[in-house]
């Protein structure tokens, strides 16, 4: 959950998405077994290809091995499939939430220095994403023993992430104050995206439970007194507001993510749907600092435009990801899935 580490991006892996019920129509029930029809087959093929493309990007060339270690490998799981943390961090809204989290995190100068100098953000963005996705998925859905090993590994990496920010201040990835900032910005983003795009948003008590469950990994990463309720989360997040600014590094992150995403040209429109949803969810001060506001006299209509235009775009992008990842052939959806048992 920490963007200062070299393996921590907040744009996550295919975590737990909406489970789509497969209801056969009366026509399908009366169709010979094995026949898929002239329309269904191309649709299924398209879904399979989209799912594979997403998985290759967020899980890397050894996606099958990683998926097996998370979803299939035997071992005790810390959380049950219907726990709030599994519902939130297994929902397709994590894509837009992850983009929002990284944009927000970049506004802290010391956190941004760690991201820019140690994370491989520009040089190897997909490798960074794959490592972070594995971390989030494993600590949420994977065997407890393996999750503990990943947390130990991240703590070791943090000891090497030190340096000097653009303003001359030193930074250290083991600094509890910085670790807390990264954590609260991330959890706030994930929760907001789920509440915005899920058909079954969490109730207030469930939202508090999500924040509490997310605190387990935070504590293991050296964050003292992580928030345990939504009210505490909002209070801690607000306490950082005086420290935030749009450094050149933060503006570069926004430009890289929103204008120059490391994707083929044909894939960028789909990404921009998710990015629109992420920008819409940012607090007003963050959009102001990152120059993500409408210009001149149009600024008065900024909030309305985002709600009317950007929010629906984010919903479309999230729905497309959810549809693709509901493919029965995905490891998380197979009958031998231990995490969902």
Automatic annotation (TrEMBL):
One of its GO terms (molecular function) is oxidoreductase activity. Residues 322-341 are annotated as: Disordered. This is DUF2236 domain-containing protein. Residues 89-311 form the ER-bound oxygenase mpaB/mpaB'/Rubber oxygenase catalytic domain. It comes from Ornithinimicrobium pratense. It comes from the Bacteria. Pfam families: MPAB_Lcp_cat.
